[in-house]
Amino acid sequence: MHLLDRVVYGAPVSKWKSLKNRRLQNWGGVVHEKGLLPQDLPPWLTKITQRIYEESGLFPSAINHVLINEYLPDQGIMPHQDGPAYFPVVAILSLGSPTVMDFIPHSRLRTCTDSGDNDVKSEGSGEEPLKIETDKKMDNHHPFSVLLMPRSLLIFKDNAYSDYLHGIKDSEVHQYDGAINDAEPLVSHKFDQPLLEPGKAVQIGK
User: Fold this and answer.
1) Which residues contact 60 (CB under 8 A, 6 or more apart)?
2) Which of its termini does the chain have fewer beta carbons within 10 Å around, N or C?
3) E-only strand ranges, 19-88
4) Helices (H), 10-120
């Protein structure tokens, strides 16, 4: 796959940032609490983001920020929200191995009953994970999962963005609708559209 082998993995080593359970590349600038410190996207990314922007019709303006996440087998990311800077749209382009993304109702939609063991956090917040309680679901919000196939594009927005957390289990084997897949290296692109005003941005990625 040209995009994966020649472009993503052909990037300088210094472009990769290693985190606990994955490594990533950041293109388009740095998102912080006051908005985006912008940088131009390279031509190969601009070609992709412009096509998504034009053909989806879901983004208020052109995409100007991209996160590329690499997950190896037995790596994932805990349920999280991408934060107000990226509201109201997230798009995830998947490369490599099939994987399953889980969506969990946000804790504010729940009435707490018993203490549980599900940790969640806001992506990039720097805060410790929060304990979510075992509870009764409200407003017909229920957990669900989406199978992300190689070269697939997932876009979610509005209530799916604000009312749910999304994550990938740390597992070498992913199951979906009775099928089992042995995980291989996975690369996801989060194409974001952080606007210059605080609290305004859009993410596409995986």
Assistant:
1) 193, 202
2) N
3) 23-27, 29-32, 35-38, 65-71, 77-81
4) 43-56
Q: Which residues contact 4 (CB under 8 A, 6 or more apart)?
A: 95, 96, 187
Give the domains, in start order, of the chain with CATH numbers: 2-204 (2.60.120.590)
User: How far, in Å, CA of 206 to CA of 193, rounded?
Assistant: 15
Rounded to whole angstroms, the Cα distance separating 143 from 145 reads: 7
Render pLDDT for 76-89 as a digit per residue (tens, 0 to 9). Answer: 999 999 877 788 88
Position 178 pLDDT exceeds 90: no
- Residue 177's region, left for phi above 0, alpha for psi from -120 to 50, else beta, is left
- Provide the b/e sequence for 184-203 (b: ≥16 CB within 10 Å): eebbbbbbbbbbeeeebbbb
pLDDT of residue 166: 95
**Distance of alpha carbon 66 from alpha carbon 14, whole angstroms:** 16
169 and 118 Cβ atoms separated by less than 8 Å:
no
CA distance 40 to 43: 9
Which is it for strands 89-96 and 153-157: parallel, antiparallel or unpaired?
Answer: antiparallel
CA distance 143 to 120: 14
pLDDT digits (tens, 9 = 90+) for 56-76: 999 988 898 999 999 988 889
Please confirm whether the linkage preceding 88 is cis (ω < 30° from 0). Answer: yes
